[in-house]
């Protein structure tokens, strides 16, 4: 089994003639779109709508193929300067689409009978949701060359600052026990069974940030100011308003979810205090023991045994997904192990040109790493369910992005807990799941509050590293309460988490996805196999409907706080079981 993903089906390198041929084709299609946009005032409406969408489809296919190849190369090795250069070339060409595309969308939105034209044409009808969004968002488009200017400026602005954060965090040397390691490897030690290792790794991690904190602070300040400026120019009420509109999600849904989370935070603090007591701490749980394993789960996995385990788990749940998982392992979709220069964490990228995904993890053989694989393979299955859609209908909104991934975690963990050999193993598994649940509730909420404070302050002042650390500590104290030791938190989470350097407010979608998936899994437990077609239809719907309308496929009202309370109650019941097992 390959340890690294195989990108050869895309291109055999940047010297591959096919790469340059596709880049030239992209240039030609962007130029054609520009000519088309210039002639729009004299174009017959239905023909113009069809021609615009056809051009966008071809451009999107080419840009995704070229861009994913360069991006995946850079994620596997942030020091791959050629990948960075080639990504810059692709983005420079693609940025030329901004102005003509804005002109096309503005023209389409102003057609008085737009939706009637769309409904009357079989090809356009597939894109009814896209056109309804175009109509709704047209008021936020920049006039003239505004879109082109913003797209090109972002290459040396937000995108460049994001690249800097990734480069610094993936290459910063970490001094540990007389040697040097990388940030991904040292953060993995938070799961080590040895308490001394966990504490020393935490201290080494915090120490390494001193080398890069000022540069990353400049990156964060610059990205957030660019976001504020962009929102102001376009007329959005706030960055959060822009995020919700781009996510096709109502503010009432976010408020219902956050309000329910506020009610249940003390339950998570109870879990943390019981864990702290079990590990011998008297003042709440220190940060370095957040992921301390409990119970007895000594099983170590290789890539091969992880494959067999996951295929077996999903074969009884959904044979179609089990088959896809086998392909992912066997056909080198996955880059497994941590190494210097490799991006930290884990992600799944859909490569439309191959109708396959590519998954990056920093696999260390623990059961949690297998759950991470299941999570990312959930994204891959979500992508698989969207394949029947046309090219421009395959992007789902950020809140719904975590649905299938977290649902997969529920599948794996429920099976593992049910098959646990004894209470010690059951405790280990439940505690592992509660670690994840605490992350999507307490930690994600702290990230949301931190980012809110950053936006509230950035327009008026530059926030240095110390200020950002203070904001982070305040947010953690609010969301973790007395569950954590207030003298042992993590002030540098803003440095290592890439989410702050990409889409705005890419935090609450994890809570949304985690709770939404738990609500769906509770339905699956009641309905059994008959739920699977409904689940597949829901995933298929995510890219062509609002979050609220997608949920209605399963009979769920997202603006009703009781739905979120119900999902949180399933976690609360696990906390009660954990407390009984831990105290025993």
Q: Which terms would index this structure?
A:
584 residues; three-stranded mixed β-sheet; two-stranded antiparallel ribbon; 25 helices; 65% helix
Overall description:
This protein has 584 residues and is mainly alpha-helical. It is 65% helix and 3% strand. The protein contains 25 helices and 5 strands. The strands form 2 sheets. The protein has a 3-stranded mixed beta sheet with strand order 3-5-4, sandwiched between helices. The chain has a two-stranded antiparallel ribbon with strand order 1-2. β4 and β5 form a beta hairpin. The longest helix has 36 residues. The mean pLDDT is 94.
In short:
With 584 residues, the protein is mainly α. It has 25 helices and 5 strands.
Distance between the termini: 42 Å
Query: Helical proportion?
Result: 55-70%
Strand sequence of the main sheet, in spatial order? 3-5-4
Structural class by sheet pairing and helices:
mainly alpha
Total count of strands: 5
Number of helices: 25
Shape: globular
H-E string: HHHHHHHHHEEHHHHHHHEEEHHHHHHHHH
Q: Poorly predicted ranges (pLDDT <50, ≥5 residues)?
A: none
Mean pLDDT rating: 94
- Report the β-strand fraction as a percent range: under 5%
How would you sum up the major sheet? 3 strands, mixed
State the assembly state of the protein chains. Answer: single chain
Estimated radius of gyration: 24 Å
């Amino acid at each position: 089994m390959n340890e690294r993903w195989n990108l050869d089906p895309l291109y055999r390198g940047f010297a591959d003639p096919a790469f340059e041929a596709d880049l030239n084709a992209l240039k030609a299609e962007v130029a054609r779109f520009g000519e088309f946009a210039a002639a729009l005032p004299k174009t017959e409406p239905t023909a113009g709508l069809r021609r615009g969408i056809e051009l966008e489809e071809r451009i999107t296919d080419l840009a995704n193929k070229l861009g994913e190849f360069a991006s995946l190369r850079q994620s596997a090795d942030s020091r791959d300067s050629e990948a960075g250069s080639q990504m810059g070339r692709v983005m420079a060409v693609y940025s030329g689409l901004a102005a003509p595309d804005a002109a096309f969308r503005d023209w389409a939105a102003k057609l008085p009978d737009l939706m009637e034209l769309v409904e009357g044409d079989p090809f356009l009808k597939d894109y009814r949701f896209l056109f309804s969004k175009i109509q709704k968002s047209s008021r936020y488009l920049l006039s003239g060359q505004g879109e082109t200017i913003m797209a090109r400026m972002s290459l040396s602005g937000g995108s460049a600052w994001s690249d800097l954060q990734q480069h610094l965090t993936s290459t910063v040397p970490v001094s540990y026990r007389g040697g040097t390691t990388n940030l991904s490897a040292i953060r993995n030690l938070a799961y080590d069974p040895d308490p001394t290792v966990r504490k020393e790794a935490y201290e080494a991690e915090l120490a390494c940030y001193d080398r890069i904190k000022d540069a990353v602070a400049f990156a964060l300040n610059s990205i957030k100011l660019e976001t504020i400026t962009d929102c102001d120019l376009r007329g959005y009420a706030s960055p959060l308003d822009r995020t919700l509109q781009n996510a096709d999600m109502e503010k009432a849904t976010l408020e219902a979810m956050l309000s329910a989370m506020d009610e249940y935070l003390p339950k998570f603090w109870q879990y943390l205090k019981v864990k702290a007591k079990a590990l011998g701490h008297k003042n709440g749980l220190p940060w370095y023991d957040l992921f301390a394993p409990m119970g007895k789960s000594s099983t170590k996995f290789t890539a091969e045994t992880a494959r067999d385990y996951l295929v077996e788990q999903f074969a009884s749940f959904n044979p179609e997904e089990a088959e896809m998982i086998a392909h992912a392992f066997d056909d080198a979709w996955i880059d497994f192990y941590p190494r210097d220069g490799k991006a930290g964490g884990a992600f799944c990228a859909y490569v439309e040109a191959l109708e396959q995904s590519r998954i990056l993890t920093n696999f260390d053989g623990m059961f949690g790493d297998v759950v991470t694989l299941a999570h990312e393979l959930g994204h891959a299955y979500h992508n698989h369910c969207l394949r029947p859609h046309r090219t421009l209908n395959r992007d789902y909104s950020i809140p719904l992005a975590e649905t299938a991934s977290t649902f997969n975690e529920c599948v794996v963990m429920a099976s593992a807990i049910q098959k646990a050999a004894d209470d010690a193993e059951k405790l280990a598994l439940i505690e592992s799941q509660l670690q994840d649940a605490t992350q999507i509730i307490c930690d994600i909420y702290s990230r949301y509050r931190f980012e809110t404070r950053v936006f509230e302050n950035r327009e008026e002042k530059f926030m240095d590293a110390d200020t950002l650390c203070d904001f982070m500590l305040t947010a953690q104290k609010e969301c973790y309460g007395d569950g954590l030791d207030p003298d042992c938190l993590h002030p540098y989470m803003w440095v290592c988490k890439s989410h702050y350097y990409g889409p705005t407010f890419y935090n609450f979608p994890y809570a949304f996805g985690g709770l939404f998936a738990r609500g769906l899994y509770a339905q699956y437990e009641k309905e059994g196999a008959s739920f699977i077609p409904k689940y597949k239809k829901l995933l298929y719907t995510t890219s062509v409907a609002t979050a609220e309308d997608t949920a209605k496929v399963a009979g769920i009202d997202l603006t009703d706080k009781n739905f979120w309370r119900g999902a949180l109650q399933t976690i609360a019941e696990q906390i009660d079981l954990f407390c009984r097992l831990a105290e025993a």
